[in-house]
Write a structure and sequence with these properties.
homodimer; alpha/beta; Arc Repressor Mutant, subunit A; D-Maltodextrin-Binding Protein, domain 2; 3 domains; three-stranded antiparallel β-sheet; rod-shaped; DNA-binding
Chain lengths: 303, 303
DNA sequence: TCTTTACATAGTCAAAAACTATTCAAATTG
DNA sequence: CAATTTGAATAGTTTTTGACTATGTAAAGA
């Protein structure tokens, strides 16, 4: 337990520095007895006499007071630094911010996003996290990151969002698949094909929902949480898959060519949002990063 | 101006560390709302949200809160060190103490004194100052040193003293002086001799007072504040001197032999005391050093 | 000697911080 | 899945702290 206050220390340091309680009081814009009392109390609480009072001739430090004085100056500087740190995290456009992303979205969007941001705000540092939807929400709530890029699906009420873009789901087929003859593919046409399901919440529910909306019961041959594994299986001809994010170059990790076709008819698109915890007051850097994300996706759409 | 308190920081650090306001309150022996309110206020004053409150699941730090937390831990440790420093200067027998001495007494007494003290209290450090009576009193008042070894002559009321020893004044003559035939010397016998006066307050007044008390008007040939210069002049046969402190070996700096004889009849002795400022509350080390001085001079007398 | 200076003390009042009791929402349990 | 428990926030009250004005006091200085 600390038995003194920073205010007492401030009064003491100034009075000792000026050699005068009156001058210290003037500089602090408080009354002389306030300073006097604060120092007296500080002495009681520390159990040492810090100042020698002279009549009509100010004060001087005792040898013990001189030792405390230099330590106290140090401590006050330290205390000011802490205040500055806090001020800068809430006000300035410097500091650190933790941005998380849903796994499948991360490699597609984050590199371009943080790249441009780092150029515009060189004093900032953006930390990247990848997680499943569930962990993203948990992480926001526990303060592991301030912002998360994810699908606007089944988000609880305490999570606030800003819309960024929409992703149109598509059908992924191996390069020699007969359905690639058409410009688009009806989900009905896939009824008798084996499906490779990307098994990550909320994608799983989303894709299965698309199938059910089209009145099709999918035949799930494989499922995996890894998009690259799904793409690999499709590439080897084990079935089709539905995906929303689309890596550049329709080729699997092991070099198999893939084919892509839009889904025929109206489909529910995947709404990508930037989420944060509603009860978390945003720092300045958070606000700037949010605005930057919105702008970034707007620019992309207009290209 | 610092806008937060160490108490708020303590509450925050403990709550963040425990992940729980309730547990922090228990460990601090205060009520839960007190901790809650203190942290809320701290957040207002720093302008940053530090904790995320969960219902029925404690609290977690925001990323900004985590930064503040580590700084705050640091600051609190620093604050505790300051308190410990103060406690040790007033309680423990370690630390620093400044001991001053009247110039003529210093070379005679201080070496043996601080030598033994340093052995008994290895954690302590005694700083030595030498000054005239006037400067000693001023130094005590201004806090340049806590203790001073000096003559108990004309001391103001605000100076407190502890008696240490008495010095018997003696007559200093050059080695071939005829008065050395006698076992002691009457001051009357010096009436027609030139006097070399040690001109330092309060010695000057003291020695002149001795002469006047014996009904002798001294013929002052030379005067100097330096005892060694006085001894040198006596050694060269320029006159006699009266002194109280007596260096070992009655020889001047330049090798002239000296003779010493006590004063015949009753004389006022020089009372050596250890002085301190009455309004200065003594630190532990001061008390110990004072006691040590008393003991040291007692031992000397009993040898 | 008289005035000025500068710190301490006394007494009052407002702000801060502590407490108890209660509320509220999520997590846990039967 | 309703009931209970948990843990933080809020409301209202009391105590403590700190600031103020006015006054006292003793040394410094004119």
């Amino acid at each position: 337990m600390i038995r003194y206050s920073l205010r007492q220390l401030e009064y003491f340091v100034l009075a000792a520095g000026e050699g005068s309680v009156v001058k210290a009081a003037e500089r602090l814009n408080v009354s002389q007895p306030s300073v006097s009392a604060a120092i007296g109390k500080l002495e009681d609480q520390l159990g040492v006499q810090l100042l020698i009072r002279h009549h009509a001739a100010g004060v001087s430090t005792t040898p013990a007071g001189a030792q405390v004085l230099s330590q106290a100056r140090n401590l006050l500087q330290h205390a000011n630094e802490l205040q500055d740190l806090a001020a800068s995290t809430s006000q300035e456009i410097t500091g650190e911010v933790h941005l998380a992303s849903f796994v499948t979205l991360a490699p597609l969007f984050l590199p371009g996003l943080i790249d441009g941001f780092a150029v515009d705000y060189p004093g900032s540092r953006v930390h990247i996290h990848e997680a499943t939807q569930e962990h993203l929400i948990d992480g926001l709530r526990r303060g592991r990151f301030e912002l998360a890029l994810l699908y606007d699906v089944d988000l609880p009420e305490d999570i606030e969002t800003v819309a960024l873009t929409q992703l149109h789901p598509y059908v992924l087929l191996h390069a020699t698949h007969p359905l690639l003859k058409h410009d688009d593919v009806s989900l009905k046409d896939l009824e008798d094909e084996p499906m490779i399901l990307l098994d990550v919440a909320p994608s799983r529910t989303y894709f299965l929902g698309l199938m059910r909306a089209a009145g099709v019961e999918p035949d799930i041959a494989f499922s995996s949480p890894s998009m690259e594994l799904v793409r690999g299986l499709v590439g080897k001809g084990h079935g089709y898959s539905l995906l929303a994010t689309r890596p550049h170059g329709d080729v699997t990790y092991d070099g198999e060519p893939l084919g892509v076709r839009p889904i025929r008819g109206p489909v529910e698109t995947g709404r990508i949002v930037l989420a944060s915890l509603g009860k978390l007051r945003p720092t300045r850097l958070m606000q700037v990063l949010t605005a930057y994300c919105v702008q970034h996706f707007e620019d992309k759409r207009n290209q």
